[in-house]
């Protein structure tokens, strides 16, 4: 899992100050992944954005947020999608290993393995994996990072369609570019490269002008999530051997004491009987 | 009289309560059928915000510690060698076996692709707590099944299996305790990954240890409750003297749990703790009424010796455990803006599973020697119609 060389994988650099809210990425994603359309309602949920949430049919979407700046109404945007973590929580908790961090960067999901336990949905700090709630035997759906395109040397569909805001390339280069922009235009941005450290580092990196919480970014730890469960799980073999061995030894000692006691009693009373044998059991 | 008619007459002779339980199980089975026909989304209130609901919170996370009586008592009786508690072991094993079988059914209903359950054997991911738990639950259900086979073999007079099972008794008891320790604690590990989701009152790195210790408390409490209920409603002898011994162990484990809980809260958790009134109340109920109050009750000899008050204290521990598991897996994970509550079908299935547990327990107790277990009276010799073993049988018995 964490043995992958994450410095060479590719990442999205999403500069939200450059996003025009055209939602070309949303459309390109639907087209490339052949996802069904969703019925939408004006002003559903928090604001102008549609569909109201990511779902089994929507892997990415632009969230709208209006705010006031110098007495003017302004818009800010946030592209919601899978963060393709360097050490993904979904991959670590999946009992059948249906999630995998690829060397190219995207975290991919193998729907042939999935047993449908939905632990990935509990584990993901960004709330990304979605479920086919309408089906009798449902599967998980999530952004693939267009792994099929990336493997073939192309950019992901959303990055190709985006006219302004998305840059795609080696992760190290993207972080470097983000930091260059922060240094060059300190007034334009909140001074933070989101995704550099979050959840142990992700392959989607954001720059923005509005505080991240205001845009609807989730509060996440900087530590890679799999380490939280692994610190307990790594003890499993030791605990098994300790408990098993300890109890075996304890019962052997106790039974031996019984056996000796029975033998001694038999000697004292001088009875030659099968009774000690009975006690052995 | 045909077999079907004989069964019909037998069922007709049952007590009204048992018939009521059968009806509940039938309704639950019907409701679970609807889940497969119409899908999880249509029949449950689960959604992308709450992928886990009542079935995981009760049928799995709560039912597993409630079935902990078998391994706890097995270890107490056979490893720690408190032999006089032996008569309580069989009912505990039956309860455990039923509990785990029903956990497996609950899990299969909740899985999106239950027909692929076997994938766990083929694609291993040792980093997954879910992998660990599913392996352990399958292994432990097998162990419990083997332990449960003893009364079955006695009932039908299968001598060879009886001898094999007798020989396997100790290894099975040790395996049961070791496997249970793993999966009871790993159920707590599940929620370690919910770093910024589970509320601070419950999120701490000791969660696995706390789950294990509280499972032991609830295992013993369930045995106390169950034996008292069997005495009251099933005409079984009063095991009060034995339950007193269990009640003497309980304050130690309860005390350990409370100490660990306070330590984890003070030293290992990060605040704020009391920012959500509903969760604060839930936490106070869980700790105060569910663990601290019964601790002070079990400390007193007068409570331990009194059948009624002892059962009440045991009931409080069960209440505390159930509330704790719901707090960790449901209430504490709740988004204040979006509330989850189980749908009618989810509730009917869970009620059916609980009813099924009681029903099968009563029926097994009716047809198999669960209560009148006296190991010394069981005939472990091999039947020898051809007289080929003859005098060799004593030497065979020493191999036990």
Key phrases:
heterodimer; A: 281 residues; Alpha-Beta Plaits; 2 domains; 15% strand; B: 400 residues; mainly alpha; Formate dehydrogenase/DMSO reductase fold; disordered C terminus; transmembrane (chain A); FDH_Electron_Transfer_Unit (chain A); 4Fe4S_Fe_S_CS (chain A)
Description:
The complex is a heterodimer of chains A (281) and B (400). Chain A is of the alpha+beta class. Chain A has 2 domains: 10-223, Alpha-Beta Plaits, CATH 3.30.70.20; 226-267. Helix content of chain A is 34%, strand content 15%. Chain A is built from 10 helices and 9 strands. The longest helix of chain A is centred in the C-terminal third of the chain and has 34 residues, at 236-269. Chain A starts with 9 loop residues before the first strand and ends with a helix. The model of chain A is unreliable at 274-281 (pLDDT under 50). Chain B has a single domain (12-377), classed as Formate dehydrogenase/DMSO reductase fold (Up-down Bundle), CATH 1.20.1630. Chain B has helices at residues 3-12, 16-38, 40-43, 54-66, 69-79, 86-110, 119-122, 129-156, 159-190, 207-233, 240-268, 277-299, 301-305, 307-329, 344-367, 393-397. In chain B, helix 4 crosses helix 14 and helix 10 (207-233) runs antiparallel to helix 11. The two termini of chain B are 43 Å apart. Classes of the chains: A alpha+beta (281), B mainly alpha (400). The interface between A and B is large, with 65 and 70 residues.
């Amino acid at each position: 899992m964490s043995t992958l060389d994450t410095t060479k994988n590719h990442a999205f650099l999403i500069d939200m100050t450059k996003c025009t809210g055209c939602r070309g990425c949303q459309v390109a994603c639907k087209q490339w992944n052949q996802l069904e359309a969703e019925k939408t309602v004006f002003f559903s949920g928090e604001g102008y954005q549609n569909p109201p949430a990511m779902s089994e049919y929507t892997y990415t979407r632009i969230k709208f947020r209006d705010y006031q700046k110098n007495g003017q109404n302004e818009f800010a945007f946030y592209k919601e999608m899978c963060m393709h973590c360097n050490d993904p929580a979904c991959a670590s908790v999946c009992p059948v290993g249906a999630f995998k961090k690829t060397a190219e960067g995207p975290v991919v999901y193998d729907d042939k393995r999935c047993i449908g336990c939905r632990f990935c949905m509990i584990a993901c700090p960004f709330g990304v994996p979605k479920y086919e709630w309408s089906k009798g035997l449902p599967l998980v759906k999530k952004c693939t990072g267009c792994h099929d395109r990336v493997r073939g040397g192309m950019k992901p569909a959303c990055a190709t369609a985006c006219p302004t805001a998305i840059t795609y390339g080696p992760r190290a280069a993207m972080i470097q570019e983000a930091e260059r922009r922060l240094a060059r235009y300190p007034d334009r941005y909140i001074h933070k490269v989101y995704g550099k450290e979050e959840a142990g580092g992700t392959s989607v990196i954001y720059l923005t002008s509005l505080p991240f919480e205001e845009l609807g970014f989730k509060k996440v730890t900087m530590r890679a999530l799999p380490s939280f469960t692994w610190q307990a799980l790594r003890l499993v073999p030791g605990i098994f051997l300790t408990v098993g061995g300890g109890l075996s030894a304890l019962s052997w000692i106790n039974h031996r004491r019984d056996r000796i006691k029975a033998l001694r009693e038999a000697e004292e009373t001088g009875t030659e009987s099968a009774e000690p044998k009975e006690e052995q059991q | 009289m045909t077999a079907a008619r004989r069964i019909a007459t037998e069922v007709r002779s049952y007590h009204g309560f048992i018939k009521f339980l059968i009806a509940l199980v039938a309704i639950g089975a019907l409701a679970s059928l609807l889940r497969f026909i119409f899908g999880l989304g249509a029949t449950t209130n689960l959604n992308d915000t709450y992928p886990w609901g009542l079935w995981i919170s009760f049928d799995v996370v709560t039912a597993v510690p409630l079935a902990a009586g078998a391994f706890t008592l097995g270890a107490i009786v056979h490893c720690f060698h408190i032999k006089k508690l032996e008569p309580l072991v069989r009912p505990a094993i039956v309860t455990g076996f039923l509990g785990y079988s029903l956990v497996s059914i609950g899990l299969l209903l909740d899985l999106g692709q239950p027909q692929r359950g076997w994938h766990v054997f083929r694609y291993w991911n040792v980093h997954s707590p879910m992998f660990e738990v599913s392996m352990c639950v399958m292994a432990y259900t097998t162990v419990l099944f083997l332990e449960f086979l003893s009364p079955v073999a006695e009932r039908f007079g299968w001598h060879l299996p009886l001898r094999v099972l007798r020989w396997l008794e100790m290894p099975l008891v040790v395996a049961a305790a070791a496997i249970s320790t793993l999966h009871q604690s790993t159920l707590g590990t599940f929620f370690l990954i919910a770093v910024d989701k589970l509320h601070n009152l419950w999120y701490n790195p000791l969660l696995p240890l706390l789950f294990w210790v509280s499972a032991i408390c609830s295992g013993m409490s369930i045995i106390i409750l169950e034996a008292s209920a069997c005495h009251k409603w099933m005409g079984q002898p009063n095991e009060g003297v034995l339950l007193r011994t269990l009640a003497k162990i309980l304050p130690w484990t309860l005390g350990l749990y409370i100490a660990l809980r306070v330590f984890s809260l003070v030293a290992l958790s990060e605040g704020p703790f009391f920012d959500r009134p509903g969760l604060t109340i839930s936490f106070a109920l869980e700790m105060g009424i569910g663990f601290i109050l019964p601790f002070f009750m079990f400390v007193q000899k007068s409570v331990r010796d009194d059948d009624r008050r002892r059962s009440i204290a045991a009931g409080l521990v069960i209440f505390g455990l159930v509330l704790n598991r719901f707090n960790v897996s449901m209430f504490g994970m709740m988004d204040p803006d979006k509330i989850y509550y189980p749908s009618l079908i989810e509730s009917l299935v869970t009620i059916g599973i609980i009813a099924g547990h009681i029903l099968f327990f009563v029926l097994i107790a009716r047809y198999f020697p669960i209560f009148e277990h006296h190991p010394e009276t069981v005939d472990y010799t091999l039947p020898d119609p051809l007289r080929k073993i003859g005098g060799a049988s004593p030497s065979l018995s020493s191999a036990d």
